[in-house]
From TrEMBL:
This is FAD/NAD(P)-binding domain-containing protein. Signal peptide: none annotated. Gene3D superfamilies: 3.50.50.100. The keyword Secreted does not apply. Keywords: FAD, Flavoprotein, NAD, Oxidoreductase. Pfam families: NDH2_C, Pyr_redox_2. PANTHER family: NADH DEHYDROGENASE, NADH DEHYDROGENASE (EUROFUNG). It comes from Cyclocybe aegerita (Black poplar mushroom).
Length: 477
C-alpha cells in the first residue's frame, strides 16, 4: 500500500470515529429516547414557574423548562434597579442554576395540543445567520421551519402576562414598561440621557423642562414605587451632580381611576397622596391618555403633554399563548385560564384536565378571584410543588389551594412606605396598617427575606449600604 493510500485510510477511520463520538455526545438531545421518569414541562420562569423549578423533586421527575428568559425577575426590586439604588444582578436569578438536573430551552410555546400532549415551540434565540443588530428578546425572529415540538406527561402553565396598553396608539413605540430587568436597564439609561441632553448649551429652557418632565401612567403599586424611587434619585444624586437642572425636573403620576393604589385601604391611599404631594409629585387621577407620540402624549383633560420619559404601568394583558389556546375555559374579561381549586385547568366540557396546571398571572381560580400579584403566584407554586411531589410518590393530596394574604407593601419615597393587611371583618390588630419609617423597615426586611438566593441576600443589603455611603452610579454604559 502506498503512503498516500495509507493516509487516506487513516483519515477515513479518524473521520468515522469522530462522527460516532459526536453522535454519542449529542444523543441526550433526542426526545425519542426511552425515559424512566415522567416528563414535567414548566412553561415560564416567573414567580410561578421559577418557584416550581426550585421545589420540584428532580430525582422523581424529568423536568423541562421552556421560557424566553434565561432568568427569573424579582419584580419588587425592578424600580430600585431602574434608578440605580440596586444593581441589575440583584433582581435576577439564573434558570440554569438547576442544570443539568433540569433541561432548559430558551423558547416560546406557540400552542398546546392537549389531546396529543404536545407543545409547539419556537426558539427565542437569535438565528444562527442573523445580523447582530437583530433583537431576539423582542421578537421571534425564526422562520417556521425552525419550530419544534415537545412532548409532556404533566404540564405547568406559568407564562405570566404582558403589559396592558388598552390599545392606546403609540404606547408600545414611545413608552417604557417595567416588567423585566431589560426594561429597568432601558429606563435607567433614558433618565441619565435626559439630563445629558438637557445639559447641552444649545438647548432652550422650554426644551429642558420638556426633557426633564417624567410621566408615569398607572397609579398601582408599580407606578407609585417607581415615581417614589425616581424622586429619591432626583433629590439626592441628581441634585448633587446637576444642581441647575434638578430644579427644572417634574414628576407626574396619571391614573384613569379616581384614586391611586385602589387595592389599599382608604386611609393609606390618603396618606400616600399627601406624602407624594409634599414631595412635589403631581397626582392627576381621572385622566385619560388618548395617544402617545414621540416626546409627547395627548391627554384628554390636558391636551398635549411633552415628556422626556414616559413609564407605562396600567395593569396586565393576556399572554399570546393563553389567547391562542382553544378547548379550554377562559375568563371573559381578562382571558385568563380558568382553573379549579386544585389549579387544574378546566376544559370546554367543564371537566378539569388532571395533567395540566396553570398558575400565576395566566390563571384564575373559578369562583375565587385573587389579585394578579407575586404573592399569589408564589403561594400557588409552593402548593403545586407539594402536590406534584406527592403525586410522584403515589400519594394523594386532596386538600384544595387556599390563599393566605400576608398583606401588601408599597414604597412611597424618602424612607417611607405603607403596609396593608386586610382584616377580613375582624377587629384591627397589630401590624394591620403601618405607614412611614416603620412600614419602610418592614418593606426592606420583607423584600430582603423574599430574595431567593444566598448570593442576592448578600448583594441586596450590600448595595443598599454602598449607595447610602457613596451615592448611586450615574455612569451611562
Amino acid at each position: 500500500m502506498s503512503l498516500s493510500s495509507a493516509q487516506a485510510v487513516r483519515h477515513a477511520v479518524l473521520t468515522a470515529t469522530n462522527s460516532a463520538s459526536r453522535a454519542l455526545q449529542t444523543r441526550h438531545f433526542s426526545w425519542s429516547l426511552p425515559r424512566g421518569k415522567q416528563r414535567v414541562v414548566v412553561l415560564g420562569s416567573g414567580w410561578g414557574g421559577y418557584n416550581v423549578l426550585r421545589g420540584i423533586d428532580k430525582k422523581r421527575w424529568d423536568v423541562t423548562v421552556l421560557s424566553p428568559n434565561t432568568y427569573f425577575n424579582f419584580t419588587p426590586l425592578l424600580a430600585s434597579t431602574a434608578v440605580g439604588t440596586l444593581e441589575f444582578r440583584c433582581a435576577v436569578e439564573p434558570v440554569r442554576r438547576y442544570a443539568p438536573q433540569v433541561t432548559y430551552y430558551q423558547a416560546w410555546c406557540d400552542n398546546i395540543d392537549f389531546a396529543k400532549k404536545e407543545l409547539k415551540c419556537m426558539p427565542a434565540t437569535r438565528p444562527v445567520n442573523a445580523e447582530p443588530t437583530m433583537d431576539a428578546d423582542l421578537h421571534p425572529l425564526h422562520e417556521r421551519q425552525n419550530s419544534f415540538t415537545l412532548k409532556y406527561d404533566k404540564l405547568i402553565i406559568a407564562v405570566g402576562a404582558y403589559s396592558q396598553t388598552f390599545n392606546v396608539p403609540g404606547v408600545k413605540e414611545h413608552a417604557h414598561f417595567l416588567k423585566d430587568v431589560k426594561d429597568a436597564r432601558r429606563i435607567r439609561s433614558r433618565i441619565l440621557e435626559c439630563f445629558e441632553q438637557a445639559n447641552q448649551p444649545f438647548v432652550s429652557d422650554i426644551e429642558r423642562r420638556n426633557l426633564l418632565n417624567f410621566c408615569i401612567v398607572g397609579g398601582g403599586p408599580t407606578g407609585v414605587e417607581f415615581s417614589s424611587e425616581l424622586y429619591d434619585l432626583l433629590h439626592s444624586d441628581i441634585f448633587k451632580h446637576y444642581p441647575n437642572l434638578a430644579r427644572l425636573t417634574k414628576i407626574t403620576l396619571y391614573d384613569v381611576a379616581p384614586n391611586i393604589l385602589g387595592s389599599f385601604d382608604k386611609s393609606l391611599r390618603k396618606y400616600t397622596e399627601k406624602t407624594l404631594s409634599r414631595e412635589g409629585i403631581s397626582i392627576l387621577t381621572s385622566h385619560h391618555v388618548d395617544r402617545v407620540e414621540n416626546g409627547k402624549m395627548i391627554v384628554r383633560e390636558q391636551g398635549e403633554v411633552p415628556f422626556g420619559l414616559l413609564v407605562w404601568s396600567t395593569g396586565l394583558a393576556p399572554n399570546p399563548l393563553v389567547k391562542e389556546l382553544s378547548r379550554v375555559q377562559k375568563d371573559p374579561k381578562t382571558s385568563s385560564l380558568i382553573t379549579n381549586d386544585h389549579l387544574n385547568i378546566i376544559m370546554e366540557d367543564g371537566k378539569p384536565n388532571t395533567d395540566v396546571w396553570a398558575i400565576g398571572d395566566a390563571a384564575k381560580i373559578e369562583d375565587a378571584p385573587l389579585p394578579a400579584t407575586a404573592q399569589v403566584a408564589n403561594q400557588k407554586a409552593k402548593y403545586l410543588v407539594r402536590k406534584i411531589n406527592k403525586l410522584a410518590k403515589d400519594q394523594e393530596s386532596p386538600e384544595p389551594f387556599k390563599f393566605e394574604n400576608f398583606g401588601s407593601l408599597a414604597y412611597i419615597g424618602n424612607w417611607k412606605a405603607i403596609y396593608d393587611r386586610p382584616t377580613n371583618g375582624a377587629e384591627e390588630g397589630f401590624m394591620q396598617k403601618e405607614t412611614g419609617r416603620i412600614a419602610w423597615l418592614l418593606w426592606r426586611s420583607a423584600y430582603f427575606t423574599m430574595t431567593l438566593s444566598i448570593r442576592n441576600k448578600i448583594l441586596v443589603p450590600t448595595y443598599w449600604f454602598l449607595n447610602w455611603i457613596f451615592g448611586r452610579d450615574l455612569t451611562r454604559f
